[in-house]
Write a structure and sequence with these properties.
It is globular, with a radius of gyration of 31 Å. It has 9 helices and 11 strands. It has one domain: Beta-lactamase (3-Layer(aba) Sandwich). By secondary structure, the chain is of the alpha+beta class. The protein starts with a helix and ends with a helix. The strands form 4 sheets. Strands 2-1-11-10-9 form a 5-stranded antiparallel beta sheet, sandwiched between helices. Strands 3-6 form a two-stranded antiparallel sheet. The longest helix is centred in the N-terminal third of the chain and has 23 residues.
Length: 324
């Protein structure tokens, strides 16, 4: 290359670099316009759609006890469990957040009066429900399908607490059929709410047709029922009712005591329990207990062949779990 041309190119390059440096460091004679500060926006992390959180209707004071539902979708830790007569069963350690053992736990079945737990949860999910409000029974609170004698009669007037206690403690069908009126809701709107509550708890296969469990279309899996009984045991309004050995009805001339259908109420510290039976569902039982060793266990048996076998199976599950 010609030296003169090369020298000219070098000089031009140096001049360009010098101008760039001066522009960067030398203050401009025209002050720059000040720009308004960028607003600080707090960006909250998005919760993925598949992440479960406690439903908004569940009381904040005890919702920490509901987080264990996240862990109840797992498989059993032990392949060998106790020998049971029930068709479906599941048991969980709520302190460790573990399913200990399961038997056909995800097949939906008729669940009879275990349905009443979902009805009770639907009741308390209504905002500002007043259990002290008196509700008088009419023919619309009478089950269309025979389901045993009721402690309540047409024309009776009771506080919501008494119908709730009748349903959960004594498994009274008319008590359960009165819960929509206690919630000040239409019957089928209330049943739809039961389905929504089941979805809130991720009881995925649960679906309902009445609040008492009389119809065979009230169906759920043992795992679904496990989530419901755990939710009942954690709810400050429902737990004292579902764990009670007896309940009191005010009959005007005096009080009447109705006893629990839970035959294991004296064997364990019961945090919640519910029995169920229909010809299709057979004998069912769900409970949350604290054992003598201090463990909090939840168990469900569905489809036991006799009334006694559902309690024998439950005792076998709890004894086995307390050793694992």
């Amino acid at each position: 290359m010609n030296p003169t041309v090369l020298r000219t190119a070098v000089v031009a390059l140096n001049a360009t670099l010098a101008i760039g440096v001066l522009t960067a460091v030398w203050p401009s004679s025209t002050p720059a316009k000040s720009q308004p500060p960028m607003p600080l926006v707090q960006v909250l992390p998005e919760i993925p759609a598949d992440v479960w959180t406690p439903p908004t209707w569940f009381p904040e004071a005890t919702e920490d006890r509901l987080w264990v539902l996240e862990d109840l979708d797992g498989d059993g830790l032990d392949g060998r469990g106790p020998k049971l007569r029930a068709s479906s069963a599941i048991i969980a350690d709520l302190d460790r957040g573990e399913i200990l053992w399961a038997k056909d736990a995800d097949s939906p079945r008729s669940i009879a009066s275990l349905t009443k737990m979902f009805a009770a949860l639907a009741l308390v999910s209504h905002e500002d429900v007043d259990l002290d409000r008196e509700v008088c029974l009419g023919p619309e609170q009478w089950p269309s399908r025979p389901g045993g004698r009721s402690k309540f009669s047409t024309g009776d007037c009771h506080a919501g607490w008494e119908y709730l206690g009748g349903a959960l403690v004594a498994s009274d069908n008319r008590g359960a059929f009165s819960l929509p009126a206690v919630a000040d809701a239409e019957f089928y709107t209330f049943v739809d709410r039961m389905d929504e509550v089941a979805s809130d708890l991720r009881a995925r296969s649960a679906s309902f047709s009445d609040p008492a469990g009389l119809e065979d279309e009230n169906r759920a899996s043992a795992r679904d029922v496990l989530k419901a009984v755990v939710a009942v045991s954690a709810h400050p309004t429902l737990a004292p009712v579902a764990s009670a050995p007896w309940w009191t009805l005010d009959e005007g001339r005096g009080q009447r005591r109705i006893n629990t259908t839970n035959r294991l109420v004296d064997a364990y510290e019961t945090l919640a329990a519910k029995t169920g039976y229909t010809d299709t569902a057979r004998y069912c039982f769900a409970t949350v207990v604290r054992t003598a060793s201090g463990r909090t266990l939840a168990s469900v048996v569905l489809g036991a062949p006799t009334s006694g076998s559902r309690f024998t199976d439950t005792r076998a599950l709890l004894t086995w779990a307390d050793q694992h």
